[in-house]
Specification:
The protein is mostly helical and 316 residues long. It contains 17 helices and no strands.
């Protein structure tokens, strides 16, 4: 049984956060804009199509390789769109059927189950700070070896992730397990059908450029770097610092669809992703009062690989 560890230990923090931002400002930050979400989703599906077309038709590596990188990032960012649905970040009123359709639609490009992702992620929020957090318990590297950390940025990630998901899903009820298996089968079948179509109609070079590189080489790097900025450099003694404070940068905000601002998301999960930069600005005084200093991905990589820092620990 889960114990909702974060809620038990963050009560003082939650009161401090509510005092740090005026009530009306917080209300505006929580307001969803379905049109804006729709435009972001439209951009992602457009990138999916245009990158695929460009990769297949361009022969110069100077043209198709950057598109392969962009395609891999785009595939990863469908998990961010799914994440928005999980936290009801699309509509201002409940629309269960619409959210269900969007969840399934966003899960397929990444080859995952929408139900499994939703349950896994909500448990992650509830149990943050403890070993009942499924991400920490099953997905974080247990041994502090550089070679193991680097494996996460390779195709080995898929074995690591699906093994972690299976371990957590084993504790779910039978109906949930069946639904997850069905959704995962649909996602994987869609991927196989797409890969077979590209290979059949455009040849093995196109399959390599438009599928294997983006999915098996770029996606793991995007996933690993994004996760590095979530809960690895923290202060385990302070619930306010159980996520990593990241610099808000216009480039990274677009590269990761604002999911790089993960601390702010855990503070207020109902704030849609495009309002997280504004939320971070509102919290500057709070961060200063807590002596919190924002980090960039370069500093995180330096600490993670070169200094070989441990996950979920204080990096001095």
């Amino acid at each position: 049984m889960k114990q909702r560890y974060y809620g038990q230990h963050a009560q003082v923090l939650q009161r401090e956060l509510l005092q740090a931002i005026p009530k009306e400002d917080l209300k505006l930050l929580h307001r969803k804009n379905p049109l804006r979400h729709g435009l972001i989703a439209f951009r992602q599906f457009s990138l999916l199509a245009l990158c695929t077309y460009g990769i297949i038709h361009f022969t110069s590596s100077w043209l198709w390789f950057p598109l392969s990188v962009l395609l891999g990032l785009t595939i990863f960012n469908f998990t961010v769109l799914l994440h928005e649905v999980v936290h009801h970040g699309v509509f201002n009123k409940p629309y269960p059927m619409a959210e269900r359709v969007l969840a399934l639609l966003y899960a397929i490009p990444s080859g995952i189950s929408a139900t499994q992702f939703s349950r896994w992620h909500l448990d992650h929020h509830a149990e943050l700070g403890s070993m009942d957090d499924p991400k920490r318990n099953h997905l974080s590297p247990k041994k502090n070896h550089r070679w193991l950390k680097l494996l996460y940025a390779t195709p080995c990630l898929f074995f690591i992730y699906f093994r972690a998901a299976a371990a957590e899903t084993a504790g779910y009820d039978t109906l949930s397990q069946r639904l997850i298996a069905k959704e995962r089968w649909i996602s994987i079948t869609t991927h196989l059908a797409y890969a077979a179509s590209v290979g059949y109609y455009f040849g093995s070079p196109a399959l390599f450029k438009a599928y294997l590189i983006p999915v098996f080489f770029i996606f793991p790097i995007a996933f690993t770097l994004n996760r590095l900025g979530q809960h690895y450099a923290i202060d385990p003694t302070d619930p306010a610092k159980w996520s990593t404070l990241m610099l808000s940068h216009p480039v990274w905000n677009q590269v990761y669809l604002y999911s790089n601002l993960h601390l702010e998301h855990h503070y207020f999960p109902g704030v849609p992703c495009y309002n997280l930069p504004k939320l971070q600005k509102r919290l500057r005084s709070f961060y200063e009062s807590k002596n919190m200093v924002a980090m960039g991905y370069g500093k995180l990589l330096y600490g993670w690989i070169l200094q070989n820092r441990k996950a979920h620990s204080l990096w001095k």
